[in-house]
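Morning!

This is the sequence you dropped in the shared folder:
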Amino acid sequence: MRFYVQERLAIFIDGSNLYGAAKALGFDVDYKKLLTEFGKRGILVRAFYYTALAENEEYSPIRPLIDWLDYNGYAMVTKPIKEYTDGLGRRKVKSNMDIELAVDAMEMSETVDHLIIFSGDGDFRRLVEALQRKGKRVSVVSTIRSQPPMVADELRRQADNFIELQDLQTLIQRDPGLRAQTQSHAPALATQGAYDDR
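The structure's back. Tokens below.
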């Protein structure tokens, strides 16, 4: 895992993917620690967080997290969850943020040297390849240690660096004692059950 302190970095977090990977490994992410950690590895220009939101819910369990991230150094990218009925009459939910992440990564590639994608989604392989053709370095953060692994093999192979999420755990893990608190730390509340419909 090579980082150069003079490199300009941008982080792109697929919220539901990171939440699922961390949950599979048995920990919650402290997003403030995550920013601090990657700020040590280069010049952190921007950190994006992507998530879909249910429009019609009076209260969303992820809302406190979104508000906290928005006020604490993250560029939030959200869109409404789309509900539809498939050909067999089954109700389905669509909450994919891949296009938004890919567009932002291509735009940011004009001003940064190294892009860090927190996702294991194999659909991002072509994005990584396109960024590399532009002379950019791309790291992917996910896990192969969960059952099943959360990262697509083709994405892991395409990346310049694959960073195992479990190796970051001690650096970015939220203190488990914070779960018991109620109102003092919004992300502690919001991540519990936020993506259970994955």
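Headline: Residues 180-198 have pLDDT under 50 and may be disordered.

More detail when I'm at my desk.
O.
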